[in-house]
Amino acid sequence: MAGRTGFALAGLAAAALAAGASLMPSGVAAQSTETAIFAGGCFWCVESDFDHVAGVLDTTSGYIGGQNQNPTYQNHPGHVEAVKITYDPKRVSYDQLLNVFWHSVDPTDAGGQFCDRGHAYTTAIFATDQSQVQKAKASKAAIAKDLPKVVTPINSAPTFWPAEGYHQDYYKKNALKYKYYRFSCGRDARVRDVWGDKAYQGIKDAMG
Hints:
By secondary structure, the chain is of the alpha+beta class. It has helices at 2-22, 43-51, 94-102, 130-143, 170-173, 175-185, 187-195; strands spanning 34-40, 56-64, 80-87, 112-113, 116-117, 123-127, 154-156, 160-162.
C-alpha cells in the first residue's frame, strides 16, 4: 500500500509540474548552452584559465583523440589532455573563447606545453560542428600574423572522455600544490614570453 501511495503522489507531483510548465510565458525557455573543447597542455591549468572567463558555465577535464575507450590517466594512448567547456553564447562567443585559448598557451610548441612533454600535452582545437571548424581556422590564420609558426591542429571532435574525479577542479581542491606546479612548470612565464601584453586576453581575473 505504501508503495502504491508513493507512486500516486509522484504522479500528482509530475502532473503539477507539467501544469506549471504549460502556464509559463511563451517567451520563457530553458537556458541554451554550447560546448567547446580545447587541449592546451595540463588540463588542470586549462580548466582554471577558462573558469575565469565570464560566460563559461562549466569545465570538465578529460581525454580525447586517442586509441582506447574509457581512457584513464595511467592508460590513454594517443589521447591528449583536454577540457570540455560549457558556455552561455549570449554572454561569451566561440570566437572569444578561441581568443582566450590562443593567448593562454604556446601554439608554437609541437612537443608539449611548458615542462610537460609528449603528445598527451600538445595543443589542439576540437570543433563540435562545421561552424566551429571555420571559426577556428579563421582565428588560427589571424594569430599566425603575430607568431613565427602555429602548430596547433584543428580537428573534428571525437568522443570526449571525462577524467577521473580527482582531476576535476584540481586547482580548487589542491590549491597550494597546483600553484606550485603551475609556477615551477613555467606556464605563465612562457605564455608571457610568447604573447607579451596579449597574454591571457579575455580572462577577467589574475591567473593562479
